[in-house]
Write a structure and sequence with these properties.
Number of domains: 1
Strand content: under 5%
Oligomer: single chain
Shape: elongated
Order of helices and strands: HHH
Amino acid sequence: MEELSNRLYSACDRMHDEVTKFYEAVHPDGKPIENEEQLSELSAELKYYMRLELDYIKELIKEQDADIPLLHRLDV
């Protein structure tokens, strides 16, 4: 369970880093960029990266569920 927790933390940490990079890219001189095309491109890049990490998290959870017997998961 500790390994799962560490992996989830790493995925969340990577997503946090990407959101920070996005924010900084949107505010290159301290002011937000107003170019819709640029904002759209930056948003698409962030969404792509976030989806990769969220898919990774889903797979981690599936892997964890596969390792836990069904009766244990149901608390029977």
